[in-house]
Every structure is written in structure tokens, then in C-alpha cells.
Amino acid sequence: MAGAATLTITEANYDSEVTNSQVPVMIDFWAEWCMPCRAIGPTIDQLATEYQGKAKVGKVDVDTNRNLALKFNVQSIPCVIVVKGGQVMSRANGPKAKGDFAKMIDAAL
User: Fold this and answer.
1) Is the predicted pLDDT of residue 31 greater than 60, yes or no?
2) Full-prediction pTM beyond 0.90?
3) Mean residue pLDDT across the chain
4) Contact 27, 59 (CB under 8 A)
5) Strands 56-61 vs 7-8: parallel, antiparallel or unpaired
6) For the purposes of burial, counting CB atoms within 10 Å of the CB of 70, is it exposed (0-12), middle (13-18) or buried (19 or more)?
7) 37-47 in b/e burial notation, b at 16+ Cβ within 10 A?
8) Which helix (H) or strand (E) covers residue 12, if one does?
9) Which residues are catalytic?
10) What is the pLDDT of residue 46?
11) What is the pLDDT at residue 4?
């Protein structure tokens, strides 16, 4: 369900895509059954395209990657987190405007 520029982040590729990333990574924790998650999906995909080369944008399906949800203490979705150098730089719970998500990435750049 991700756009061309949007990464699918899993427990298997987390270290290579996030921990070892040279650029900030925005992670959208979501699930197929979550309507607010699906509502922000196109916004997340747009940001992935717009920030290509400057930051990574990816999605974690909490149903198939429970350990990542636990690692970040995700208790409700959608939950969007920006990670840089292995550290959480910012986090937003619930649907937000595209500009709010962009500010999160910009602050980490």
C-alpha cells in the first residue's frame, strides 16, 4: 500500500533502513484496518517523494511488526516518528496535516 518512494520498514530491514541511515527517517506506524491510518497514507507517500534524497519515509505495519511497535511504545495508530542517528527526534499521534509532518522532518534535517 506504499507509494513508489515510500519504504516498507520491517523488523528484518529496520537496522539497514533506519538505524544505519545517514539521513532522518520518518516512520508511519499503521495497520490496514485503521481508517485514520489509511487517510494519511497518501500524505505520507507525498512526503516520501518530496524528501527523496534528503530523508527517508517509510511505513511499519504494526500487525506484522509488533516488536517495532513495542520498541517505540506505540499504543495508538497512526503514530508517526522521526528517527535520526537511532534517536527519536519527534513523534505525533493521530492524523495531522501534511505541513505538520513536514515540520517534523525539517527539524531533523
Assistant:
1) yes
2) yes
3) 96
4) yes
5) parallel
6) exposed
7) beebbebbbbb
8) none
9) 34, 37
10) 97
11) 83
| 77 burial level (CB within 10 Å; 0-12, 13-18, 19+) | buried
Other CB atoms closer than 10 Å to residue 109's CB: what's the count? 12
- Using alpha carbons, select from 84, 31, 35 the residue that is nearest to residue 55: 84
**Where are the domains positioned within the chain?**
7-108
Residue 2: band (very low, low, confident or very high) from pLDDT cuts 50, 70, 90: low
Q: Give the model's pLDDT for residue 69.
A: 97
Angle at 96 between CA 92 and CA 100, to 5 degrees: 80
Backbone phi, psi, residue 101, to 5°: -65, -40
Residue 27: partners with Cβ closer than 8 Å, 6 or more residues away: 9, 18, 58, 59, 60, 72, 80, 81, 82, 83
Q: Name which CATH class applies to 7-108.
A: alpha beta
